[in-house]
Amino acid sequence: MTQETVEQGTGQAVERAWDALVATARRTVADGLVVGTSGNVSARVGDLVLVTPSGVPYDRLTPADLTAVDLDGTQVRGTLTPTSELPMHLAVYRHTPARAVVHTHAVHATAVSTLVPELPPIHYMAGALGGPVRVAPYALYGTEELARNMLRALEGRTGCLLGNHGTVTYGDTLDQAYDRTAQLEWMCRLWLTATSVPGRTPALLSAAELDEAAGKLRGYGQSRRAPR
Fold it and tell me: CA separation (Å) from 120 to 17, 162, 167, 196?
C-alpha cells in the first residue's frame, strides 16, 4: 500500500466522519436538545478531532466547513473557529477511549443539574452510563476549569451533567454518544415528572440493582455474526 493510498483512505474517513458529525449536530436541534448554535459535537479520527465550529447554524454547515484540531488543540483543518467548548472535548479524548462526544443544553437535564449533585437512580438505563450520573460543579463555559470539573464527574462514567449548563456524553461512535445523551435527557425528564406528584416520593434503584442492569446492558442488542 502506497503512502498516497493511505492518505486517500484517511481523507475519506475524515470526510465520512464530518458528514456524520454534521448530521448528529442537526439531530440535536431537531430533537430539541439544543437551541440555535448552542451545544457542540466532535469526533476523533486518528489523531484528528473534528469539531463543530463556533456560532454557525448546523443547517448551514457544508463539507467545505470541515473543522479539525490535533490533540493539543492546534487547528489543522478549516478556517472557521472551533467551538468555544474545545477544552472540554479535548479533555475527554485525552483521558478516555472516546471516539465521539456530544454536548447539549437539554432542558430537563439542565434543570436537574440545578437541583441535585447527582441524578437519583430512577431508571436502570443509568447503568448504560456507568452508574448514577453526577453533576459537575458550575464553571464558565469554554474554560479549563469546566473541563476539569467535567472529568471528575465522568470518572467511571460515559456521561455527566454540567451544573447550570447541560450534558456531556461520549461513546465509540457518534450514534452511541448521541443515544447516551438522549437517554440522559429522558431520565432527567422522568425524575422531574415523578417528583412533581404531590405527596409522593419516587422509588429509586439500589446500587446492586444498577450494577445488575449495567451487566445485562453490556450484552444488549444484536450480536455480530459472520455473514452467511
Answer: 35, 15, 16, 14
**173 contact partners, CB below 8 Å, separation of at least 6:** 99, 100
DSSP 8-state class, residue 228: -
Instruction: Provide the Cα torsion 73, 161, 18, 100; round to 10°.
Output: 80
Contact 171, 157 (CB under 8 A): no
Which residues are marked as active site? 85
* Residue 180 and residue 169 in contact, taking contact as beta carbons nearer than 8 Å: yes
Q: Counting runs of H as helices and runs of E as strands, what totals does the chain give?
A: 6, 8
Separation CA 30–CA 163 (nearest Å)? 24
Q: Where are the alpha helices (DSSP H) in 96-136?
A: 107-113
Does the reported pTM lie above 0.85?
yes
Local confidence pLDDT in tens for the 228 residues of the chain = 333 433 444 789 999 999 999 999 999 999 999 998 899 999 999 999 999 999 999 999 999 999 999 999 999 999 999 999 999 999 999 999 999 999 999 999 999 999 999 999 999 999 999 999 999 999 999 999 999 999 999 999 999 999 999 999 999 999 999 999 999 999 999 999 999 999 999 999 999 999 999 889 886 655 544 333
In angstroms, rounded to a whole number, what is the distance separating the alpha carbons of residues 191 and 35? Answer: 23
